[in-house]
Design a protein that fits this description.
Blueprint (H helix, E strand, L loop, with lengths): L3 H14 L1 H6 L2 E4 L3 H12 L7 E4 L2 H9 L15 E5 L2 E2 L5 E2 L6 H10 L3 E6 L13 E5 L4 H10 L3 E4 L15 E6 L6 H9 L4 E4 L1 E2 L5 E5 L5 E5 L6 H4 L1
Parallel strand pairs: 1-2, 1-3, 3-6, 6-12
Antiparallel strand pairs: 4-5, 5-11, 7-9, 7-10, 8-9, 12-13
């Protein structure tokens, strides 16, 4: 499968390049998704999560961690996180991302904001020149505002769909929001789009992760990878 080799290469690079960061961290946040699962397997096998306070971004991640014997803590009890590890669906040259294919965008963004060091891990297929080039942008919407948000995004000229899968009806997040996917195409002004969407009451969160990356680790399908350092502008690593 395309990208699987790159995911494994990136996960291996994270463990190698950030061993000291993760060893020194007392509280570690963990994102959601297939790439994160690979990293968790490596960290657990090497004992790197032993004696850590581990904060999950979703029920799915909490269940995966606990099934491996890792105790997790309620994110509500944690003011800041020392290091956060997650994947991404798209990454642009500036370290801005689209995330949320696992419908955990709100939990992931809250943990990324709390964390002093954010490490995002992708295979090379996730690198794009402009966000929205390959993947839709997920948004989480309160049920009272579904029809209003539908009208707003139609007026903005975007196609959209309600996320489905595993049940009848739309996907509902851990926070009881409805997940919608916006088919924006390449986004020329991601900050402007984020501001416009977030101005709608009841639109709980967007899958645009702008200014959150300290590092993006890219794995190559041919083997190896690279660590990209970015200038972060949001969250604990910047202003807490």
């Amino acid at each position: 499968m395309v990208g699987e080799k790159g995911k494994k290469e990136a996960a291996t690079l994270v463990v190698k390049e950030f061993e000291e960061v993760l060893s020194d961290a007392r509280i570690i946040g963990v994102g959601t998704g297939s790439t994160v699962s690979i990293i968790v397997d490596l960290l657990v096998s090497q004992g790197m999560l032993d004696d850590k306070i581990v904060v999950p971004s979703s029920i799915d991640t909490a269940m995966k961690l606990s099934s491996k014997g890792i105790a997790v803590t309620d994110p509500m009890t944690v003011e800041t996180i020392d290091a956060y590890i997650d994947g991404a669906d798209e990454v642009d040259p500036y370290g801005n991302m689209v995330k949320g294919r696992g419908a955990a965008l709100l939990g992931e963004k809250m943990l990324a904001y709390k964390s002093r060091v954010n490490i995002f891990v992708v295979d090379e297929s996730k690198i794009v020149d402009k966000l929205g080039s390959m993947k839709p942008v997920p948004i989480e919407v309160h049920r009272w505002m579904l029809r209003t948000v539908e009208k707003v995004v139609r007026d903005m000229g975007y196609d959209y769909s309600f996320r489905s899968g595993g049940k009848d009806g739309p996907v509902i997040s851990d926070f009881c929001g409805v997940i919608m996917d916006l088919y924006t195409g390449p986004i020329s002004d991601p900050y402007g789009l984020e501001d416009r969407l977030r101005s709608i009451p009841g639109l709980v969160e967007t899958g645009l992760f702008l200014g959150y990356a300290d590092y993006v680790v890219v794995g190559w399908d041919k083997g190896g990878g690279e660590v990209r350092k970015h200038s972060r502008s949001r969250g604990a690593g910047y202003n807490i």
